[in-house]
Every structure is written in C-alpha cells, then in structure tokens.
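for the recovery benchmark. tokens below, seq after
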C-alpha cells in the first residue's frame, strides 16, 4: 500500500503516538472485558512471490499460495475483490483452502461501486458482489468499503443512504480518506454518530503520511485496523508496541473482535513484522493467535525490538476531553449471519438470505438468492 508513504528520513521526524482515547468510545464499550474476545491477524494479500523460501516452501506455485498462507495467518484482508466481482464458484475454491480452519476472509467492496459509482446507483453490483462473498459462509469476516481520497463530505448523503441499504446481518466497515472528514469537527462528529446509528464500523488506518485517519473512534464493539509499516524501520516496532497496549485497553473495556492487517510499501517484509505483532499481541493482550512460521524454523532477527511485553504493563491511553458527548444508548451487536457447512464434492450452500433495507431513491440492494455451490473437495 503506497497510501501515506513518506521518505525514510522523514520517518524519524513523525510523531507516531496514537491519539488520546475519545470519550465517544464509552457509547460502545461497556467497561468490562467480554468472556471470549476474538483476534484475527493477517496480511493484505496471499500472492507474494517474495515469501517463497521465507514462509512458503521453495518451489511453491502461485496456485498453492493461498493454501500456504492459511497455515500462517487466521485471516486475510481480501483486496482481490476490489478489482473484480467474483461469483460463487471462485469464492468456493478459495473457501476450500481454509476448510476446517478458524479463518476469516474480509472482502473489499469492488471499486466499480466504491470509486466509479455514485453509491446510490450501485444496487445491482452490490447484489452481485454479495452473492459471491456469501459463499464464504462461516469464513466470511467483515466486509469493508474503501472510498477514494476525493470522496468528500459533500457526498455524505450518498454514503449514508448506501450504508443504510446494506444487509443488517452482515458486518460492514468503511474507510474514509478525504481530509475534511477529520479536519472539520462538526463533520467528524456527525460521521461517527451516523456510523454508530447504522452499526457500521470505522476503519482505522495507521500510515506515516496521514496521521489524521488514525482516529481511534469505535462505532461498533469491533476494530478493523490497516497498519502500514515501513520495511522494518525501527519505528515499526514501537508503533506495534503502542497498538498492543491500546488494543489491550479496549479489550479490558469490552471490545469483542480485533481485525488487524499488516501492510507494507514493500510487502516482502510483511511476515517479519506480522510475527512481531502476533507475539506482542499475545503477550500483552493474553489472546493466542496464529503466528507465521518461517521455512528455516527460526524467527528473523528484529531490526529493533522494544522492551519485552511482559515487563511493560499496558498503560491506559490518555482521555480525549475535547470530544462531545452524544446519546448514550448502547450499540447492539449485529446478528451473526448463518453459515453453511463445507463438505466434500459439492458447492457450499450460501448463508440464509440477508435482510436489506431500501436504498435511497428507490434502488434497493437486492439480497442474493441462495447460492448452490459444491462441497469442498480434499486438497
């Protein structure tokens, strides 16, 4: 991901400290740890040839990359769906690679919807997209909508109407990049209040050149973090330490699910930093997560490691006293979508039909018909 990229010399000049904890989050977090919080950590893509000989065995063919990827991570930020709408047959093949595993695919809404439509005229394309990804069944994680940095608050009515039209039994997140969403306090407050009302999550993107979008606001009791590292620069490790402590604070106050995805400008080094993140997260937050295993059987040396997690108790983040308090009604967690069982030889049945509300201007998002897909064959 090149978004927010700066030169290497500039990295040492940037204040990467995470912002203060917003008062807003008290509307979502109930103040005590839930019984079984879930953590999903992964990367943005599985098709990285640079990982052959690193976490993929030598000689691994591209067709087998996903089968290798699921051995090292328990989730994937599925960017492939951003460039093409895939039907149930292709999704079923991907899903088969994770058969029997506790794994989540988190599909990105196609750019034909997010970047090349008005959103409110995208009902048919959204239906086709959902028809495909619902085939993931129990392996389907949150679906996320990334809007371009040209999508300003001047078009917010389109955004809110589109989000309101989406199925209510699926979890959606949205990533906004236009600076005005965060610079204008009135717009920012309206945005997070609206997402809270719609039960849509606000993605937090942590990248060097755009500190404004690391906003720390939770509009659902789940987080979706897109972390952009800088090829194992020393600041990558201190940033991960900061995140582990913040996530622990949120978990201690009622966060239910964590989705953390590792990005790099040079994706070749993503596994190294992902390993550091999983180890740090487990030590600080106390939740076991799947870790990447290197072909050599040895973890690579850290460019610069921070103090051991166990010796550094997580500090509660500073409170943001400037946030305006709004309504204090709790947010209900979305109903879990029904998922199908993967079996041998036949396509997996799609989950039960998702409920959808009418889209603005009379163009509702149609709920896909139940997909008939083959049961998952043995690898």
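predicted aa per position
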């Amino acid at each position: 991901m090149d978004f927010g990229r700066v030169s290497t010399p500039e990295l040492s000049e940037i204040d990467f400290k995470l912002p203060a904890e917003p008062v807003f989050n008290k509307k979502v977090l109930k103040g005590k740890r839930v019984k079984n919080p879930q953590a999903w950590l992964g990367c943005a893509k599985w098709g990285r040839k640079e990982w052959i000989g690193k976490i993929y065995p030598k000689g691994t063919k591209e067709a087998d990359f996903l089968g290798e990827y699921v051995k090292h991570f328990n989730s994937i930020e599925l960017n492939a769906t951003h460039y093409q709408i895939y039907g149930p047959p292709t999704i079923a093949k991907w899903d088969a690679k994770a058969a029997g595993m506790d794994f989540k695919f988190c599909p990105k809404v196609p750019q034909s919807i997010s970047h090349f439509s008005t959103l409110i005229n995208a009902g048919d394309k959204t239906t086709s997209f959902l028809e495909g990804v619902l085939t993931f069944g129990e392996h389907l994680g949150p679906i996320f909508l990334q809007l371009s940095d040209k999508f300003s608050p001047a078009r917010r009515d389109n955004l809110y109407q589109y989000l309101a039209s989406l199925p209510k039994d699926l979890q959606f997140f949205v990533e906004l990049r236009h600076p005005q969403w965060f610079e204008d306090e009135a717009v920012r407050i309206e945005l997070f209040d609206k997402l809270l009302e719609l039960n849509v999550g606000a993605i937090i993107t942590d990248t060097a050149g755009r500190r404004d979008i690391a906003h720390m606001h939770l509009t659902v009791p789940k987080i979706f973090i897109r972390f952009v590292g800088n090829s194992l620069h020393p600041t990558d490790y201190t940033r991960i330490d900061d995140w582990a402590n913040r996530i622990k604070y949120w978990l201690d106050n009622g966060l239910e699910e964590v989705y953390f995805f590792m990005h790099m400008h040079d994706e070749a080094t993503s596994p190294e930093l992902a390993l550091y993140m999983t180890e740090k997260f487990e030590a600080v937050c106390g939740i076991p997560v799947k870790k990447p295993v290197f072909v050599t059987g040895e973890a690579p040396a850290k460019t610069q490691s921070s103090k051991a997690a166990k010796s550094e108790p997580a500090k509660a983040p500073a409170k943001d006293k400037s946030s305006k308090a709004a309504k204090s009604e709790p947010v209900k967690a979305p109903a879990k979508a029904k998922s199908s069982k993967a079996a041998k030889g036949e396509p997996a049945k799609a989950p039960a039909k998702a409920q959808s509300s009418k889209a603005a201007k009379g163009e509702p998002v149609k709920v896909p018909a139940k997909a008939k897909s083959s049961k998952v064959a043995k690898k």
